[in-house]
Amino acid sequence: MSPKVILITGSAKRIGAFTARYLHQLGWNIVLHYNQSxxxxxxxxxxxxxxxxxxxxxVQGSLNTVQEIEQVAQxxxxxxxxxxxxxxxxxxxxxxxxxxxxxxxxxxxxxxxxQAPLFLAQYCNATLQKNNxxxxxxxxxxxxxxxxxxxxxxxxxxALVMMTQSLAQELAPNVRVNGVAPGxxxxxxxxxxxxxxxxxxxxxxxxxxxxxxxxxxAIDYLLNAQYVTGQIxxxxxxxxxxxxxxx
Length: 247
What we know:
Blueprint: E1 5-8, H1 14-25, E2 29-34, H2 38-51, E3 56-60, H3 66-80, E4 85-88, H4 103-130, E5 134-138, H5 151-171, E6 176-182, H6 194-202, H7 212-224, E7 232-235
Parallel strand pairs: 1-2, 1-4, 2-3, 4-5, 5-6, 6-7
């Protein structure tokens, strides 16, 4: 049997890149999607193809318009001639206080976190149906509890939760759709003070930052959990159920 194929959006860096390596080591063929991070994506693909020749293909494209999303989907399916799984990992994240929100913010935050997962699911549906495929959406614990000054981001992630549940019904029984909601796994690429980090960790019952492997393992579980659909697995060290800040 030929290896299964997964498209991972935004997979040149951080959790996307780690997950690509993790699944590649488990035997998956990877379609690495990137937008602007060409150098990182090319180097990652080179390393994985050195380990297993012809097992990784690159797809470049913005996810901000429906036309561009369709092109990414078409290229991804053509890369190996099939698709068994779609991981909607690409995500813009930055604050948008009320009074400062622009149309560009809407395009970036709603585009990557809500619009792209929906239309990628639509354009990949036929091949996923044929292969009893899987869709996994990267959600966020703040889809349920808003993060201050991030209204637009939280709105988009909340919509992604509903999309996950709705598509799980609509695409069954041949396609399973689930989500992973990370908590504090990696600090933002923007500068964050040690004091702010300490305040975040006070909200986490396990009192530590999560690891990228924790997310990759949850994704691997959902790829193989044949009787699980419409669910969100929260990987946050207990933060979402914590009732108070630790002293």
